[in-house]
Amino acid sequence: MRPMGYILVLIIAAFAAPVFAATAPQTFQIADAGTFANKKAEYEVGARREMDLWQRRMSEADAHAQKDLDHAWVATKEQWALLQQATADSWDRSRAAFERASEHLKGTWEKYHSTSR
Predict the structure, then answer these.
(1) Among 69, 63, 77, CA closest to 105
(2) Mean pLDDT value across residues 2-30
(3) Is residue 96 assigned to a domain?
(4) 39 in a domain, yes or no?
(5) Do residues 112 and 61 make contact, with C-beta atoms less than 8 angstroms apart?
(6) Taking the mean position of all CA atoms in its chain, how far away is CA 22?
(7) N or C: more exposed end of the chain, with fewer CB within 10 A?
(8) How many CB atoms are closer than 10 A to CB 69?
(9) Is the dihedral of CA 75, 53, 102, 107 positive or negative?
């Protein structure tokens, strides 16, 4: 009986090891997802303030600047929406696109307004 029990233990160990190994990375992914969520939320707080500022500025723009600013504003809002939906895999790309759109909007604003408001 002893050899049969020993073989049974070996068989159970052989099947259990891959199961435990397969589940271990999920624990790390959950931790990474929490860290990502915190970093994303922190970044979005500042970005939301910037979007609110631009919303006010857009309402103050004169007619001459409005067409260029509207185009830049729409692009920035599109990138903002994509940024808010970004996952850990797409975060860097989405953030870079949002920042490029924001910089373009700032440049367009400065083109028509020599001083910052």
Answers:
(1) 69
(2) 45
(3) yes
(4) yes
(5) yes
(6) 27
(7) N
(8) 21
(9) positive
Report pTM.
0.57
Residue 117 inside a domain? The answer is no
The dihedral region occupied by 91, where left means phi > 0, alpha psi between -120 and 50, and beta the remainder, is alpha
Two structure tokens written together for 51:
């979007």
Residue-number span of the structural domain to which 39 is assigned: 2-112
End-to-end CA distance of the chain: 87
Tokens of 49: 């303030």
Helices (H), the chain: 2-60, 63-85, 91-112
In terms of Cα–Cα distance, which of 79, 65, 71, 82 is closest to 117? 65
The residue with greater pLDDT, 65 or 40, is 40
**85 versus 112: which is more confidently predicted?**
85
Neighbours of 109 (CB within 10 A): 20
